[in-house]
Design goal:
218 residues; globular
Length: 218
Amino acid sequence: MRLVLLGPPGAGKGTQAQRIKANYGIAHLSTGDMLREAVAAGTEVGRRAKAIMDAGRLVPDEVMIRLVAERIAQPDCARGFVLDGFPRTRAQAEALDALLAERGERLDAVLEIAVDDDALVERISGRFACAQCGAGYHDRFKQPEVAGVCDVCGSREFVRRDDDKAETVRARLEAYQAQTAPLLPYYRDQGLLIAVDGMAEIDQVSAEVLEKLEAAAR
């Protein structure tokens, strides 16, 4: 089974990708992981990607598609893969289709984890953690049992990630809507798009994902 996972930052793609991997015995291909692995292995494309990233530039489509081509040719992708973080643009999607066609393959499905932007901003921007032990909390959904005191270690120091600030989350959502959301009609026209409710509880999302993938495979 060859899948692409789409959804904005914070939608839970990584969690669902890991569960799909475990259920179907296929590889989880995250663009970040692929880049790090290629750089660490010192492959030609890895060396080129490292030079580009060290210069503070975005890795171009041509390098990314070569990276994906190298990765899906590895033995652990023989049974399939779930791509997380690629493609991000129409040009990348078309390049992926061409790459798979050269291998006599095609995508089986494209899974969209659909979310409500405002609810997602609240979900992410409300997160904070204990500065000492890292235990996670949330302004609305999971406050410490004693206000201002970590349930786990008793610390009174808490931190919030810069990436979790509401303005940062909204900027990332806007980038997703501008660049990646146009892939939805592209894949819908191919009859590949499957949407699930990403605002449900994690186990509910997983159940819906597996149910719809099984239906699509029949």
